Amino acid sequence: MAGEDAERTFVMLKPSCVEKGFIGEVISRFERKGLRIIQLKVVKMSREKAEELYKVHYGKPFYEGLINVIAGKTVVAMILEGRKAIGVVRRLIGATDPAEAQPGTIRGDLAINLTDNLVHASDSPESYQREYRIFFEDEELQTY
Ligand code: CMP
Questions:
Q1: Tens digits of per-residue pLDDT, 34-44?
Q2: Does 120 sit in the ligand 1 pocket, CB within 6 Å?
Q3: d(CA 66, ligand 1 centre) in Å
Q4: Helical H runs in 1-144?
């Protein structure tokens, strides 16, 4: 990985982002910030993959609704790299609840529902390590 404080993060554009035609809008915000796209794929989410991604939320009141908005639908999975990428991407995306997200953030500008809040991103290096493996093989990451 190139550069001081370089870090990678996993991002998933949720089905609503794909269906509303916001793939390019969201990716361009990441690129304009200076993040590098290491890998990117369009994926039909199986229920198994959805449950694996969100297993930390198993048992919470919103868990079933969350799985239902993702399972069987098309998402875009990607790995981004840049300085302090995990925090940078979380701040670009904005608060989990789009109704509370600041204008200027992705959720603040483009979403309003909590369960289907447009974008998911890893919240720690440990989450990144777990989450990217659900979608990518290590051999696929040798792109730069
Ligand atoms: P995400 O960043 O993908 O991580 C967990 C997801 O659960 C979250 O975004 C929301 O889509 C969803 N969710 C639904 N209800 C809640 C809630 N009350 N608190 C947190 N997350 C919620």
A1: 999 999 999 99
A2: yes
A3: 7
A4: 15-19, 23-33, 47-53, 63-70, 85-93, 106-110, 125-135
